[in-house]
Specification:
The chain is mainly alpha-helical. The protein has a domain of 169 residues: Up-down Bundle (Ferritin), CATH 1.20.1260. It has eight helices and no strands. The longest helix is centred in the C-terminal third of the chain and has 32 residues. It starts with 23 loop residues before the first helix and ends in an 8-residue tail after the last helix.
């Protein structure tokens, strides 16, 4: 870039107080030259700002955050006993109890589904699709229980496994047949689990625990609604086909569900 001045100019040295007349272009050139030689002035700016605003900065210290002062209060809350969790923070007893209750719900439902798997896998029942469906359902509920166990430990709670009720072993219904009766039972269980999850969510809300509410919403609630919709469709289909040959076709559908990317 070439800069032209309409009249002779003299570049001002920052340390000199004298100058000669310059045109407008010359003054711009002089200002640019001063800017390029400006590190000395820039270095002095923070000192000037500190001098002017020192009292203000001092007044603000501690208003926003003083880690070495504030952490002293937190250190006093760190337990010394090896039997007490170091990770526990803002986690009340009511939430801990509710998580343990939900673990028990998931294990009980898993146990019922495992009993249904055992029933439909019998040689004199031989509905392999139903057996496959309930085996996967049992494993899914057990996975949910384990997710809750991991969360309990993550928050510094203590996992307490509660008793599991023995499920039924026979599921043949005189009017509905075994397939429809089992699927209606499943729909009722999934709706019950959803109610229990909503109660768990409300406990977290009442105790102002946003981490717990987010966990329940992310890991359980949406999936539970989808499961209820799918089981409701199965109930409707089985009501249409009755107890006869249609059950065998429904069972084949369940057996091959998920094959070749089919949901």
């Amino acid at each position: 870039m070439i800069l032209r001045a309409s009249s002779p100019v003299s570049i001002i040295c920052p340390s000199s107080g004298s100058s000669s007349p310059a045109s407008a272009d010359g003054r711009r050139f002089s200002s640019m030259a001063s800017f390029l030689r400006g590190p000395k002035v820039v270095r002095s700016a923070p000192r000037a700002m500190a001098a002017a605003g020192g009292e203000r900065t001092k007044a603000l210290t501690g208003v926003l955050f003083e880690p070495f002062e504030e952490v002293l209060r937190e250190l006093a809350l760190v337990p010394n006993s090896p039997d007490i969790s170091l990770a526990r923070q803002k986690y009340v007893d009511a939430c801990e109890v509710a998580i343990n209750e939900q673990i028990n719900v998931e294990y009980n439902v898993s146990y019922v589904y495992h009993a249904l798997f055992a029933y439909f896998d019998r040689d004199n029942v031989a509905l392999k699709g139903m057996a496959k469906f309930f085996k996967e359902s049992s494993e899914e509920e057990r996975d949910h229980a384990e997710e809750l166990i991991k969360y309990q430990n993550k928050r510094g709670g203590r996992v307490k496994l509660l008793p599991i009720v023995s499920p039924l072993t026979e599921f043949n219904h005189e009017d509905k047949g075994d397939a429809l009766y089992a699927m209606e039972l499943t729909l009722s269980l999934e709706r019950l689990v959803n109610e229990k999850l909503l109660h768990l969510h409300s406990v977290a809300e009442q105790n102002n625990d946003p981490q717990m509410t987010e966990f329940i919403e992310r890991e359980f609630l949406e999936e539970q609604v989808e499961a209820i919709k799918k089981i409701a469709e199965y109930v409707s289909q089985l009501r249409r086909v009755g107890k006869g040959h249609g059950v065998w076709h429904f069972d084949r559908m369940l057996l091959h569900e998920g094959d070749n990317g089919v949901a």
